[in-house]
Specification:
heterodimer; A: alpha/beta; eight-stranded mixed β-sheet; four-stranded antiparallel β-sheet; 16 helices; 20 strands; about 35% helix; globular; B: about 80 residues; mainly alpha; 5 helices; binds flavin-adenine dinucleotide
């Protein structure tokens, strides 16, 4: 069947921080650039980022990119690629200053320079003491970033396709990427976007978990599309959990609440963190607190009728202090837990927050995969940046504020690589394969004709609950094995989802079914990769890993200092080495990760 | 019940515009839609659609009562959302 074709030099899927930054590079180079987005660009999930963006500007005190690099390698538990990390940390000042020139209203010092605040894990002098490295625009950093970059794109004539959903990647016989298929929501029609180069900047897939801080839109579409097109996914077992999401809702409660004296309590009212971290108590690191909470729940000391959460208590604090220092917390409690935090404790659970793995790339933003003995051979015409990509700078654990930096640095570098690639191509596009849209059309046709199938909402919920219970902050063999078989069953149900509403115009039931096709790929990649990695590293904690002086905290460098690659076909796993060679400085040598 | 043709704003489009960048808004709007979409008049739907044009930060501030909506016409819809 033939579908309409639109031709561009470059097609970018995703209009969050990463996609917008790349688009500036392409449009300003004079290339015809299309940006597709499921929602209006400034409604992308980047809008949620408040903490800021890291850069060693040294405006408030001495700082250096090399210190930032050290912190990032250490934070990643040595799984991050040191060439990419050096690249990112060295580029940070440049991209932040550029953003300032695009009109980003950063907070300022009296001398006019960008104000910087401290953030967990960012230290001076190779881990000595906290440093002020985060640049923010009040509590709306992500929002301001999206606005500044969207305006810049409008000026540069980037062509936006808003409320369009990309469906599948198009690769030719040689495996080169030549476009995507996409559905216009308004009409329900499928189009082919024919391009010389395609960038995926589709954000994270936090909605694979039942409890998630991510907006509903974060369904891992780019990651799912890549997997269906035969591209492996890297390090998908690594997900960052935030200890305090509101139970049942996911809304994030900042660390600041515990910083101001908030206490975690179990069903007996006990301040249980005293047993797990006698010194830091409720202020221990995110992973320690999350694990303690889940232990309490697993051992029957959870709260509520289902004993499935613990309580965050601030009732002992002076209401005036709460209103002054933590104004948002009361609002969140009332809106999402039905609780006035001044009078009653808040129900909280560890909640999925950030996807460290994704589509494998190098620091040029080129998507890479093993080919002819090279573990990282670029896939011609294909690029990825932002949370959907794995460069890999976050390794096994991301530092706060490094994600917005990742968007800017790799958004820009992928844009630059695409400009170079497109300019080196002949004037004519590489031909599309015959029937380039058939695969997408057959998926849609399956949905339209399915009878006796499963409901999308219920199937998604089953997947989310399985991932939460079997592949959350606590992982061990039996639990993971069981999870893998459950997810395999759920995958069958996803393959037979049925929608009652077959209408064309803005059919949200159809859109959600298509999103579920992507979520399930991410869930499979995550749980299969997690099951295979028998060590603990960063955010992936195996309770059955040996914790001894040889394997500190269960980390096993001899066997597991390597990146996972999961292939959709046959759930096959492969591995590739971590790049331990920075671009110009010495290797940051392996060490136990202790703060 | 109205048929789809009676809506100035198609229900699908309205639903999709409730998909936001902030989880807080997703949750509030989902709750509102589940309980109230069916009973909204055509005019109310149009008002909701208009409110959804605000950026996420402003919209959350409005529905949380931290900010007033500058369009006084939309006050009724804002009140409904705040009560949801
Ligand atoms: C509550 C919260 C607070 C955070 N705070 C910080 C912080 O302070 N600092 C920090 O560094 N990081 C923070 N993070 C992480 C950071 O916000 C994200 O990692 C980052 O914004 C992701 O940006 P992105 O450009 O990759 O994707 P997104 O901003 O998620 O954008 C994805 C884009 O892809 C589009 N899209 C997706 N699928 C399709 C499709 N099929 N077809 C068409 N378009 C599609 C969407 O419409 C959207 O435009 C926070 C995260 C959360 C959840």
């Amino acid at each position: 069947m033939s579908v309409p074709i639109r031709k561009f030099d470059a097609v970018i899927v995703g209009a969050g921080g990463a996609g917008l930054r790349a688009a500036i590079q392409l449009s300003e180079a004079g290339l015809r650039t299309a940006v597709l987005s499921k929602v209006f660009p400034t409604r992308s999930h980047t809008v949620a980022a408040q903490g800021g963006v890291a850069a060693s500007l040294g405006n408030s005190e001495e700082d250096h990119w090399h210190w930032h690099m050290y912190d990032t390698v250490k934070g990643s538990d040595w799984l991050g690629d040191q060439d990419a990390i050096e690249f990112m940390c060295r580029k940070a000042n440049e991209v932040v200053v550029e953003l300032e020139h695009y009109g980003m209203p950063f907070d300022r010092l009296d001398n006019g320079k960008i104000y910087q605040r401290p953030f967990g894990g960012h230290m001076s002098n190779f881990g000595e003491k906290p440093v002020r490295r985060s640049c923010a625009a009040a509590d709306r950093t992500g929002h301001a970033m999206l606005h500044a970059m969207y305006q810049r794109n409008v000026k540069a004539n980037t062509q936006f396709f808003i409320e369009w959903m990309a469906l599948d990647l198009i690769r030719d016989d040689a495996g080169d990427v030549v476009g995507v298929t996409a559905m216009e929501m308004e009409s329900g029609e499928v189009y082919v976007f024919h391009a010389k180069a395609v960038l995926f900047a589709t954000g994270g897939a936090g909605r694979i978990y039942y409890s998630s801080t991510n907006a509903f839109i974060n369904t891992g579409d780019g990651v799912g599309m890549a997997a269906r097109a035969g591209i492996p996914l890297e390090d998908m077992e690594f997900w960052q959990f935030h200890p305090t999401g509101v139970a049942g809702a996911g809304v994030l409660i900042t660390e600041g609440v515990r910083g101001e004296g908030g206490i975690l309590r179990n069903a007996d009212g006990e301040r249980f963190m005293e047993r797990y971290a006698p010194n830091a108590k409720d202020l221990a690191s995110r992973d320690v607190v999350s694990r303690a909470m889940v232990t309490e729940i697993n051992e029957g000391r959870g709260c509520g009728p289902n004993k499935d959460h613990v309580m965050l208590d601030i009732t002992h604090l002076d209401p005036a202090t709460i209103m002054k220092r933590l104004p948002g917390i009361r609002e969140i409690g009332i809106q999402f837990a039905g609780v006035d935090a001044i009078k009653e404790p808040l129900p909280v659970v560890p909640t999925c927050h950030y996807q460290m793995g994704g589509i494998p790339t190098n620091y040029h933003g080129e998507v890479v995969m093993p080919k002819n003995g090279n573990p990282s051979e670029p896939v011609p015409g294909f690029y990825a940046a932002g949370e959907c990509a794995c460069a890999s700078v976050h390794g096994a654990n991301r530092l706060g504020t490094n994600s917005l930096l990742d968007l800017l640095v790799f958004g820009k570098s992928s844009g630059e690589s695409m400009v170079e690639y497109i300019k080196a191509q002949p004037a004519a596009h590489k031909p599309l394969p015959a029937n380039a849209a058939d695969y997408s059309l057959s998926r849609l046709n399956r949905l339209d004709t399915q009878t006796g199938g499963t409901a999308v909402g219920a199937t998604r919920l089953a997947m989310q609950r399985t991932m939460q219970a079997h592949c959350g902050v606590f992982r061990f063999k039996n639990m993971l094995d069981e999870g893998v078989s459950k997810i395999t069953e759920i995958e069958q149900q996803v393959a037979s989802t049925e929608i009652k509403d077959k209408s064309k115009v803005f059919n949200t039931a159809r859109l959600e079914a298509l999103e579920l096709d992507n979520l399930i790929e991410v869930a499979k990649a995550t749980i299969v990769s997690a099951n295979a990695r028998t060590e603990s590293r960063g955010a992936h904690v195996r309770d059955d890993a040996i914790d001894s002086p040889e394997f500190p905290d269960g980390r096993d460098d001899a066997n597991w200092l390597k990146h996972t690659l999961w292939y959709r076909e046959g759930n096959k796993l492969d591995y590739k080495p971590v790049n331990m060679t920075p671009l110009t400085v010495d290797t940051i040598a392996l060490k136990k990760r202790a703060y | 019940m109205d048929s789809a043709n009676d809506y100035q704003v198609s229900p699908g489009r309205l639903l999709w515009h409730c998909r936001r960048g902030l989880l807080e808004l997703d949750l509030i709007l989902q709750r509102f839609i589940e309980h109230h979409l069916e009973s909204l008049t055509t005019e109310q739907r149009a008002e909701l659609f208009e409110l959804l044009h605000y950026d996420d930060i402003t919209l959350l501030a409005i529905v949380s009562g931290r900010e007033q909506c500058e369009e006084t016409r939309l006050k009724g819809m804002v009140d409904l959302l705040r009560a949801a």
